[in-house]
Write a structure and sequence with these properties.
By secondary structure, this protein is mostly helical. The protein contains 10 helices and no strands. Helix 3 runs antiparallel to helix 8. It is globular and about 45 Å long. The two termini are 30 Å apart.
């Protein structure tokens, strides 16, 4: 998986100018690529950083928001209506899925929102949620709002790196570099803290016994 991520990251570096010159179409093409990559379980955080570096903060946020939410919807609907049996067979011995299935059955959209703050593989989780009892729209809106902090953080990281290195054409003042470095450390600490809180909340709704898949 690491080699696949490295390949696509290198490809993005080579095509950065092309995406930028395409304007709004470049944003949509990049978002479509995000949606496809998560379907095959490629980690998305490097591509969130790359979106910030290529399109700036707001352009990157729009791009990664479209890509991740479209991908989440596609995986959910595929699992629920098309590939339910094959995905169920693949996950039937997965203890993590059994926990998710039982928790979602008890807490609905609230547990989806909390799970989005935990370090679960994004693409695989989307397929898992399609096999649970939650309805599509509560799932979709819980996903939309809950992934905003992580999306914004990774995009900000990429946009800030451009400013930090001067690659954006603006030579950063030493004071700006210090503020960016402090912000980076603070961002990592905040994200880690929120992740711990979410994991603790999810652990509180773990079932005492495995729940059935169907």
């Amino acid at each position: 998986m690491a080699s696949i991520t490295e390949f696509f990251t290198h490809l993005l570096a080579q095509s950065q100018t092309t995406f930028q010159h395409l304007g709004p179409l470049g944003l949509l093409l990049y978002a479509a690529g995000i949606a496809v990559l998560q379907m095959v379980f490629v980690p998305l955080s490097p591509f969130g950083v790359a979106a910030g570096a290529m399109f700036g903060f707001w352009g990157g946020v729009i791009t990664i928001t479209i890509g991740t939410n479209v991908g989440a919807a596609i995986n959910f609907l595929l699992a629920r209506y098309i590939a339910r049996k094959s995905i169920s067979r693949r996950l039937e011995g997965n203890e993590r899925f059994r926990v998710i299935d039982a928790a979602v059955g008890r807490e609905g959209w609230k547990i989806i929102a909390l799970l989005r703050l935990c370090p679960l593989p994004f693409g695989l989780a989307n397929y898992c949620y399609g096999l649970t009892a939650i309805r599509f729209w509560p799932y979709f809106f819980a996903t939309f709002f809950a992934i905003i902090p992580a999306n914004c953080f990774f995009v900000w990281l990429g946009a800030s790196a451009q400013e930090f290195t001067g690659a954006s054409g603006h030579a950063a003042h030493p004071g700006e570099k210090i503020l960016l470095a402090v912000g980076l450390v603070a961002g990592f600490c905040a994200l880690s803290y929120v992740t711990r809180l979410a994991k603790a909340a999810v652990d509180n709704v773990r079932p005492s016994a495995p729940s059935p898949l169907e």
